[in-house]
Amino acid sequence: MGMFGQFWSGVLKPIHQLLAKGGSNCLACGKTISICVPGYSELCLPCYSSIPWITEPRCHICGRHVGCPDCSRKGGVPRSFVMNRSSVAYNSTMRQWLAQYKYRGHEGYSLVLARMMGRAMEQMKQELKPQGIKLDGVVFVPLSEERWRERGFNQAEELAKGAALAGRRAGGRLPLLNLLMRSRHTDKQSFKSRSERLINMQGVFQTLPDATEQLGRVILGTRRTGLDHEAVIRLLLVDDVYTTGSTINACAAVLQNICGQLGFSGEIYSLTWARS
Question: Of 73, 140, 150, 200, which one's alpha carbon is 20 to 30 angstroms from that of 182?
Answer without folding.
Answer: 73
